[in-house]
Amino acid sequence: MTTRPQLRQLGLNTGKKARLHRILFQHGVRNGTAIFLPYDQGLEHGPRDFFANPLASDPSYIVKLAVRGGFNGIALQIGLAEKFFWDYAGEIPLILKLNGRTDIPSDAEPVSPVHASVADAVRLGADAVGYTMYVGSPAQERDFEQFRQVREDAHRFGLPLVVWAYPRGSAIDSKGGKDSFYAVDYAARTAAELGADIVKVNFPRPELQAGARAEYARTFSPQQAIEAVVRSANRTYVLVSGGEKADDAAMLDKARMAMEAGGLGLIFGRNVWQRSYDDSLALVDQLKEILAKYPAS
Amino acid sequence: MTTRPQLRQLGLNTGKKARLHRILFQHGVRNGTAIFLPYDQGLEHGPRDFFANPLASDPSYIVKLAVRGGFNGIALQIGLAEKFFWDYAGEIPLILKLNGRTDIPSDAEPVSPVHASVADAVRLGADAVGYTMYVGSPAQERDFEQFRQVREDAHRFGLPLVVWAYPRGSAIDSKGGKDSFYAVDYAARTAAELGADIVKVNFPRPELQAGARAEYARTFSPQQAIEAVVRSANRTYVLVSGGEKADDAAMLDKARMAMEAGGLGLIFGRNVWQRSYDDSLALVDQLKEILAKYPAS
Amino acid sequence: MTTRPQLRQLGLNTGKKARLHRILFQHGVRNGTAIFLPYDQGLEHGPRDFFANPLASDPSYIVKLAVRGGFNGIALQIGLAEKFFWDYAGEIPLILKLNGRTDIPSDAEPVSPVHASVADAVRLGADAVGYTMYVGSPAQERDFEQFRQVREDAHRFGLPLVVWAYPRGSAIDSKGGKDSFYAVDYAARTAAELGADIVKVNFPRPELQAGARAEYARTFSPQQAIEAVVRSANRTYVLVSGGEKADDAAMLDKARMAMEAGGLGLIFGRNVWQRSYDDSLALVDQLKEILAKYPAS
Amino acid sequence: MTTRPQLRQLGLNTGKKARLHRILFQHGVRNGTAIFLPYDQGLEHGPRDFFANPLASDPSYIVKLAVRGGFNGIALQIGLAEKFFWDYAGEIPLILKLNGRTDIPSDAEPVSPVHASVADAVRLGADAVGYTMYVGSPAQERDFEQFRQVREDAHRFGLPLVVWAYPRGSAIDSKGGKDSFYAVDYAARTAAELGADIVKVNFPRPELQAGARAEYARTFSPQQAIEAVVRSANRTYVLVSGGEKADDAAMLDKARMAMEAGGLGLIFGRNVWQRSYDDSLALVDQLKEILAKYPAS
Amino acid sequence: MTTRPQLRQLGLNTGKKARLHRILFQHGVRNGTAIFLPYDQGLEHGPRDFFANPLASDPSYIVKLAVRGGFNGIALQIGLAEKFFWDYAGEIPLILKLNGRTDIPSDAEPVSPVHASVADAVRLGADAVGYTMYVGSPAQERDFEQFRQVREDAHRFGLPLVVWAYPRGSAIDSKGGKDSFYAVDYAARTAAELGADIVKVNFPRPELQAGARAEYARTFSPQQAIEAVVRSANRTYVLVSGGEKADDAAMLDKARMAMEAGGLGLIFGRNVWQRSYDDSLALVDQLKEILAKYPAS
């Protein structure tokens, strides 16, 4: 078991520390861990994600679920944040997602365009901002450049910066793929090197080795892989993403491994709301039970 | 029947609410619905659209028609707004269209370039601004980036933001096409996620399924489709576009379905003015009769 | 005969109206018509245009010709305006041309880059600014974007904005070509929609129909074509360009047709100065005789 | 023999006139002519240019040579200007070269990126700024746009603007090549149209006619060609570039022809310093003897 | 043996001189030489570089090593600088690396995007900034443009500017390759011409001549090559990079040759930390022994 760094070790400025403290110790399990509800799928995948549970198409339903489920925060794009967060403003931390894209055009050279600002987040009373970085994209030049402005503004306004670090693009496809250990490990490190306070990654799959660098072409257990990823991120906290809806047991297993590895917590969307309201709350309870076992030292 | 959200539920700032109230309750049927007259075809398609009724080439004719017909507003590009709106300034709300393009070059990777500002709209006394977003365009990165500035300025100046959400581009062509249920549904949601106050869509055609996502490859009635689109947009009001001139009965039918689905109203151009002046007014009367049946709750 | 709109009908701000009044009523025929001398060919085509009359290579010669010939204005690029206009500053209105390009590289996707500002024009005492728009260029996105700044600045400083509306680019070539009625008509309208105060077009050739839109694939007389173009531009005044040096009788004929159609006047360069000084002045007299027959109403 | 325009005829603002006067009448031959030493080859070609005379690799050696040789100025990139000009600051005018590139990548679509500002030149006490324009490059759009800022700043700060007008790029290659009369003539005119105060050109070679415009496909003597180029530039002073090291007699001949044609002077680098120190000074003396015969009128 | 220029000869402004003095005379061997520890490999190559010594994945470990080893400075990207430098702030100079990229996508046309600012460096108390320039990249236009801002800001704030001058891109591959004498020599000169205060280069390999310019297609000893490189850089100090971990004896040899040639010192990362902590310190001692023999004159 790796140790999660303490909030006071991170060299954060006062605003970031204040808001992270609020998120980690005044919401969720209140022990320094976190479970977030991301709700950007309507943009990233389109309404098709809501066909499994049509109620989930309604942002009011989701915000209410996040509040009732006792999440540490909810991640919304600017449009939904403007029109739906005010109903519950103050009851749950908002992570304003600053960039996003539809999945309609090719993602061979993806960049997620910035369509909201850190100033928007401040105005809306958000406690953090989110940014999707497509690590390894042939278009990384534009990605890093626009990220720079976000990082600077987040620092200036004292908002913690959560990076969705997604290996993507044709170059990744030929080097093990987006979920390979190599790709996820590199993505976590990249977010840390560039200034993320929290990084969201998919759970690495060490068996995907085709095309990956030689160092990763050995046998690693999932636990070894996630621990390496958390080490690579070091003082950047790690959230494990749920991704597509999957088998509950497998998902809980990954959650446990991530926490054991020193992760900060979880960010689960479709796995949570692509089921009935009550089932969603029940699942969240199970996840929070896991988090409760990993309090801040 | 879905319920249209009330103006006071939308979380709008004071300026947006004031201007939307003026548009929706002091013009048109004055019951919270809307019928708009778009007049950007001279740019978007060229003067050929006026050959069916040469008088319609004259912006004076059109503005007068909008005033006499009791529309909730007229949408003009900056050049015509500067030179023709002042004759009737104050008599009808102006939606200043901030971007636009000719249809001469390829539209495989379309972006509609911004050629006017929200500040121009304020200066001209407009009550709203309009923006065309080509949802799914391979160039969505630039589209979203320029939209961001428009959204921020519209918020800052308190002008409602109407998004022409048009699925377009090579990626859309291969996924069901621009009028498919999949494409229209995703377009409406995208506008909502990114911060539109009102979204203009084409009426979805659920029978166009070739290439669309699996979730849409089932049988849906037109009524089901338009209801889904309105749900996806949620607190972003939906306007159904007339598109090319079509059979009147079919058009009235779509108008009824849209209102039944909880839509805000209609935005009809060529269907209105590609006929004689008197016929135009008669058609508008029919459309307003429909709107009258769907007052704000 | 179509009627040319009056200056007071155009909704112009005070500065634009003041300067247009000076141009139209205190120079040239002084009756609200105009004949301009464009002198940007040294950049647009290179010195080869001066081989027919080597004296015309000297900007001093040309500015003197414009003054002696009693033109309503002369159009110069910034470099020549800086070094040659001061000799005659105040004696003739200057239209500062704000963009331009050489014809050396391919013009498949043309944009005419902006290399001077409206502020330069104000500083030089210019009475108007000129902008070349390549309507239909595959690069129209950049064209419209840079035009936006020019339009805003021209409005802010009160300078009339003259648009050289040139259909160009591979998309135009395949739709009837740059001089087709379809292309010229669309170009005039585009300039009007985007905010030109005056638009300069080539005389349309209705017989060029290959590839043009169906509406234009009929028989139109040149008079019908130019009238349609003037109608499409409406409250944006129309200037007919001389283009390459041509037969004098044909040229005078076009001038007459343009004025009959409600055009504002003429902008003739090579046709004027690719002959001896005295012949130039004689031709100008003939053109001004035509203009004299079309006073402002 | 063409007459060189006088400084007071050029319409320059006070700062430009003051600095040009200092360059032309207080340095070099002090008669209104000029000989400049360009030293940007280390960037433009790399250190290989110094293999013929390794001492020339040291900027100190070159600046000293320029001072001792009595040049009218030395042209340096920002890095060398910062670290080497201060030794001799005030003893010789500095032309700060604002853009430049290595010759490593393809020059099919060249633009010379700006890496220093007019403000840097002011700070360093430079008396002029230099800009390389690749006339005819397929990338001329970016070239003209960045030139605009340079021109505006040079005007604002009163620094004379020297344009290295180089025909370049694939379009030039197919139209006679970079040294053809057509290309050089067009380049000189382009610099003048866009606002250069001084233009540096290669000596035109009228025998290169393959692909050039019809007007240039005749027999011209070198003297006729350079006279035409100077006429095309008109009130923009012309400097003839030395280019690669060549036969001394031929070089002196070109210098004589250029001055006879009304040129301002010479800008010779490799021809000067790719020989021993004493030989360099001897050559400069010969060149200055020529200049002495062409005093300002 | 070439002589290294003295600090007071470089024409630096006060802030740059003050900080360089601190780096060169108050840290390391304190004799005007330098050995730096670069730690940007986590971004540039990914965590795979840490597999040889997993402890090196932890930035705390590396910063401690730099302090204990008595380096003249440590180079970090913004993310690690924010979160790890504060532990040791003031104990060792920080070079904030302002740009960087992952090695996942193709590097045929590389540019290293800027993701931190000189202002960030000032805020963090850094004593210098670092910038990677890919000399010869087909994308050099963007590279030079972004470098310009960095150079200007570094001058304004008085921070020494260290340029990682890396020949890269398809054009370099076909001209001798990134380590050829031709490429390294040109890269060093380019950094000097554009305004670097210190340039970091790989040790040149004069035997790589395929495709290089004629001047370099002769036999040069390594010592001759590195001396030429130092001469090309002249008043820009030269650091020799360690590159991939190599044979110790060969590495020490290169270090000696570099110092003999007048180099400033060394910047060794993987060669240092891809071994045990004690071995790292032992190696650093050997390197510092070499530096001790080359005090500032």
From TrEMBL, chains A, B, C, D, E:
Statement: the UniProt record of this protein carries the keyword Lyase: yes
Catalytic residue list: 166, 200
Species this chain originates from: Actinopolymorpha pittospori
Coiled coil: none
Keywords, sorted A to Z: Lyase
PANTHER family cross-referenced by the UniProt entry: 3-HYDROXY-5-PHOSPHONOOXYPENTANE-2,4-DIONE THIOLASE, FRUCTOSE-BISPHOSPHATE ALDOLASE CLASS 1
EC number(s) from the headed UniProt entry: 4.1.2.13
Protein name (database record): Class I fructose-bisphosphate aldolase
SMART domains per record: DeoC
Family matches, as InterPro entries: Aldolase_TIM, DeoC/FbaB/LacD_aldolase, DeoC/FbaB_aldolase, FbaB-like
Domain of life: Bacteria
UniProt xrefs under Gene3D superfamilies: Aldolase class I (3.20.20.70)
Top EC group: lyase
Gene Ontology molecular function: fructose-bisphosphate aldolase activity
